[in-house]
Input
Amino acid sequence: MVRTLEHPDPADLTLQQVLEALVDPVRRRIVTQLSEAADGMSCGTFDAAVSRSTLTHHFNVLREAGLIRQTYAGTTKLNVLRTEDLESRFPGLLPALLAAGA
Amino acid sequence: MVRTLEHPDPADLTLQQVLEALVDPVRRRIVTQLSEAADGMSCGTFDAAVSRSTLTHHFNVLREAGLIRQTYAGTTKLNVLRTEDLESRFPGLLPALLAAGA
Output
């Protein structure tokens, strides 16, 4: 059985939820790192000075806000930024945030 | 004596403070209304379902984050969006947020 995680449709993304996700500097750092990793990153490879469980919480917030897509890969999760979905829903927002040093 | 209010220099604006200001929907609504008012708006003319003192707080947060410039105009304050300062510091961010329905 393939386990999957819930992801909101692009049309259901809200600016409120995206901003609530990105107001946290650790989550912005995750997004920045993902933006530089074309093939995504597994949860264990992030450079963040927080505990594993805190990191899991941050990934959940990012996934529920529609910023990242998470898929199971063996015993870990692979994370990719939903760049195209975000661009279609909020044109220019993610590039501007990344340029601002998100 | 002319009373003035403190405003951060464009170089001192931080993405953290801008996002903390804009994560609040009332403050985003103020920014949207200001973006449509070329000559600025006085505090009393805002369409927001909050008390006067709450509105004053929101304006202070927006000013301290560098999003608006406030000047005294008689017994009220005139508010203008710092569009050019924001564009120079965070290119594309404000237009993307406004397009997203900020």
About this structure: The two ends of chain A are 37 Å apart (CA to CA).
